[in-house]
Amino acid sequence: MPLLLFIIVPLIELYLIIVVGGAIGALWTVLLVILTAVIGVSLLRIQGMSTLTRAQKNMAQGQIPAMEMMEGIALAVAGVLLITPGFITDAIGFLFLLPGSRQAIIRYILARSSVQAGFGGQSINGQSKQYYQQKPGDKSSQNKPTKSNSPKKVGRTIEGEYRRED
User: Which letter does DSSP use for residue 106 in this model?
Assistant: First the structure.
């Protein structure tokens, strides 16, 4: 399927560029493609800084900026789509630049994903999760994980001091 996308999407983009070029002229089509890329990258910079500011604010409050991390990934995808010549990729890239549509797309993807990561009692989509952990070598609780409020360290910790001698 991904290989098919790498073949079909450029063909559709090329066809659309030819059609638009036939309607408004080749020079205007090239200028339009360049203009959408320049506007997109400018908006990308603004949205990226806004997302970074929100992530720093959440971290300062002791919260994990999970949604902001996902938005950062979405903005990176938007950047790639916007610098790719074509009108369809630009339209999708601009959708990722609008905060409302970007967050809706992220929530849709997370709702359909089978794996969600939990961080400190929080998951990426904001729902509370509990940590389940099993101690290594514990045969009795192999099928019954123990529930705790915070993750426990697994393994041996060897405390000591060292001195570097060169």
Answer: H
Across-strand partners of 119?
A: 122
Instruction: Please report the beta strands in the chain, taking only residues with DSSP state E, as ranges in sequence order.
Output: 118-119, 122-123, 131-133, 146-148
How far is Cα 97 from Cα 106, in angstroms, rounded to an integer?
12
pLDDT, one tens digit per residue, over 18-47 is: 999 999 999 999 999 999 999 999 999 999
Please give the biggest Cα pair distance in the chain.
75
Neighbour count for residue 145 (Cβ, 10 Å): 13
CA atoms of 9 and 34, how far apart (whole Å): 19
Q: Domain coordinates of the chain in residue numbers?
A: 35-113
Q: Which of 48, 47, 68, 46 is nearest to 57 (CA)?
A: 68
**Quick one: pLDDT at residue 160?**
79
H or E segment and range at residue 131: strand 131-133
